[in-house]
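Sample intake sheet
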Amino acid sequence: MCLTVYTAYMSNIVKMKGQDLLVDSRVLAQEFGQAHRFTYELISNHKEQLERFGVLRFETVKPKTGRPMKIFLLTEQQSLMLLTYTRSRKETDDLREKLIREFSTMRMALMEVSLNKQNQAWLENRERGKLTRKDATGVMKTFIEYAKSQGSKNADTYYMSFSKMENAALFFVMQKFPNLRDVMDNRQLSFIQGADTIVREAIREGMEKEMFYKDIYQLAKKRVLTYSELIPKTSIPMAIPENK
């Protein structure tokens, strides 16, 4: 039986690295309302205590602007322990609650993925969806070349643009996931297959009529939105961000 977990609210604190759920020290700094260097220093000063709950992970990242910087990646136990070294205030209590809630929801989401892969009906539906998506992607590839011929400088982004547009029209998606369709239930998989078909046919029609590429995208979007009015908009039963 497929477990379904619906979320009305999801913060964006916990990240997924491989199969590990971790908290980025930059995100904690933002939650604390302080510069990252102060949070980094707080973690460094309590490194020994935090490593009682496992090795304290860190990595060097390159921001869009500025020099590379080192960040820490904390587990649930480490991040909750870190809160004990901050000033006791309502914001800290709120953050503790958010951490516990999100870690719990994301663990259930991982269970959702595992259960889906043991559900034969879901697996068959997922395979059908892959074929539909493959057909749509093939048409999108042709569309991208079509857009480039009309002067588009960012045509390659349309793969993502169509996907985001479909997901936004059909579902409440709070965060990203490496493959959002792996955590959809059977009904949601069927809905997204319908949207893929609509997009595919709208693109074909638009190119046949030699429409401007931006107008073709708007045509596909309009039809997907019309389609979305016929079905209930549901929450994706989990929300794990993509890896960095």
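Comment: Residues 120-149 form the longest helix (30 residues). The first strand starts at residue 14 and ends at 17.
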